[in-house]
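Q: What structure does this chain adopt?
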Amino acid sequence: MAPSSTTPTRFDAALFESAQAAGARAHRSAAQQLAHWARLGRELEASAGISQRDIGRVLAGQLSYDEVGDREQAAVRTGWREGVEADLATLDLRARFAEQGRTRWSEADEHGNAVVHETTHGEASGPDAD
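A:
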């Protein structure tokens, strides 16, 4: 198979960062991940058996997930997953709680054990503090 040529393209920084994160998990570069997503999108939109309108309506909260077919549900789950991953990538509970004036909170670690975090005078302390 002959190598394909590439064309320089600009992407939104957030999309590029998402591609970097997703690509790392799949052992792809950001450019390879963006190309992968583009190919998936092309095939999805070309499929006569999938309603893009219904997928968009479910993602917008205008239609129930249970009212669409299996293929649309798969696309919706992908959209939801990508949204959650993007939100988690930027989530900083320590900063958010500090803004709210919280000085103590708890969460579960990767093993399910409770970890209590405390701040003093707006400064973070605990196992993740610098």
